[in-house]
Amino acid sequence: MYRFMSFFMLALVSAVPMLQGGEMADSKGTVVIMLGPPGSGKGTQAVQLSEQFKLPHISTGDLFRHHKKHDTELGRKAAAYSEAGELVPDALVIDMLGERVAQPDCDAGYILDGFPRTLNQAVAFGKEILGSHELVVLNLDVEYDVVTERLGGRLTCTQCGHPFHKLFNKPVREGICDECGGALTQRKDDTEDVIRNRLRVYDTQTKPLIQYYQDLGVLNSVDAGKDKQSIFTELTGTIKAARRVSNHG
Ligand code: AMP
After folding, report:
1. Which of 20, 48, 90, 189: CA 20 to 30 A from 202?
2. Which CATH fold topology does 2-142+207-248 show?
């Protein structure tokens, strides 16, 4: 536990002057947390929200895949967990995230996709962020059979990570990414057995965060079974409203 906290403290001590710098500009920076089961559309929505609000999109899953692609020690350690649909240990995730949010592009805030996924992660993160940043938690609420169908047909670009779907979001040319021309593949953790395990892990370890953020008064749930554009409109409105309250309240 001590090691876990000190990892995060170290990473954030270096981030604090920059966080305060952003805050001094004119208002608090905004940190958006995307909650929801695997396949609820967090990644797709986070990419669009990132463009809309000019905030970096930080996906811990993408960071691990980046490490794996570059064959780093962290990438090798995380792959064993990810490929089985298990969570990577908190200390590794927190350390990696702390380094990322200390980068200057995060000064005015950022959008977190896939973090936090445990109560420990949420508590450690919240201690540093609440007070210096406006926190907006967006919970994408969707039935498990819908996400199982979505994930089972998901194709991901090996180059840029852009998601497609075999039925609902086909690329123009089969097997080729519309965004960058990279090859599309099925993620190792998008197979039936692993999807089942990921949902089990979500249920036991991540779902309790809904109540945690509800109690903090920062939870906003949306029906993520709707079409992408309606969800995006709702999420955009929620972030804008939260920012208005924080700047004038
Ligand atoms: P994702 O792309 O968000 O579905 O993440 C893929 C995998 O990366 C997960 O199944 C976990 O193994 C790992 N991972 C990503 N974010 C976290 C996190 N916050 N805590 C623990 N493991 C994570």
Report:
1. 48
2. Rossmann fold (3.40.50)
